[in-house]
Write a structure and sequence with these properties.
It is elongated and about 60 Å long. It is built from nine helices and no strands. The chain has one domain: Growth Hormone, Chain: A (Up-down Bundle), CATH 1.20.1250. 83% of the residues lie in helices and 0% in strands. The relative contact order is 0.18. With 187 residues, it is mostly helical.
């Protein structure tokens, strides 16, 4: 998610020029979409996970995976449909990307012993920015310089899909890891 959102945010002006949109107003529109979609989605993702968890113990990872995977076709479609409809696709894709914010933070808290929980969050922040922001800017730029920015953003879609698959693969481990921490803290 960090790779996608940071990379898109950094390269959105170039993409908007590519699509013939005036960058100044369009960057403001993208910022508004990011704030509104990110905030509402973070809240909705946490609420949805809380509703699903009684029946699906690994709901944190399921909601995260679903958000990433659902964002892929929406984002890809937004690269081709005309503006202003492309803004709707952008909003929906960003909304789906941010679904994992609440659930992923809950999962970190649930699988970390209280004595190392702060370090777990700090390590998570470090890793998502090293693998996200740090890699997104040059990677997208490299792909765009050898193709075009639309192809580079399709590359981002592939990264989003891969992250969804990784969330799905982790689902089988989450309940046992959370139970082990719960047992260790109860003792």
């Amino acid at each position: 998610m960090t790779f996608a959102v940071a990379g898109i945010g950094f390269w959105v002006a170039e993409y908007l020029r590519f699509r013939g949109q005036p960058p100044a107003g369009a960057k403001t529109m993208f910022g508004a979409i990011l704030v509104v979609a990110g905030l509402t989605s973070t809240l909705f993702g946490g609420w949805l996970t809380d509703k699903l968890r009684p029946k699906i113990p690994s709901a944190d990872f399921l909601v995260s995976a679903a958000g990433m995977i659902i964002a892929c076709p929406i984002f890809a479609a937004g690269l081709y449909i005309p503006f202003p409809l492309a803004w709707v696709a952008m909003f929906l894709a960003i909304f789906c990307l941010f679904l994992n914010t609440g659930p992923s933070n809950t999962a970190i808290a649930n699988v970390s012993l209280p004595s190392v929980r702060a370090m777990a969050f700090a390590l998570n922040i470090f890793v998502i920015h090293v693998l996200g922001d740090l890699l997104a800017f040059p990677s997208i730029g490299f792909v765009a310089s050898h193709t075009d920015i639309r192809i580079a953003f399709l590359f981002v879609t592939g990264i989003m899909f891969l992250s969804g698959v990784i969330w799905l693969a982790g689902m089988k481990f989450l309940p046992a890891d959370a139970a082990a921490v719960e047992k260790a803290t109860a003792a």
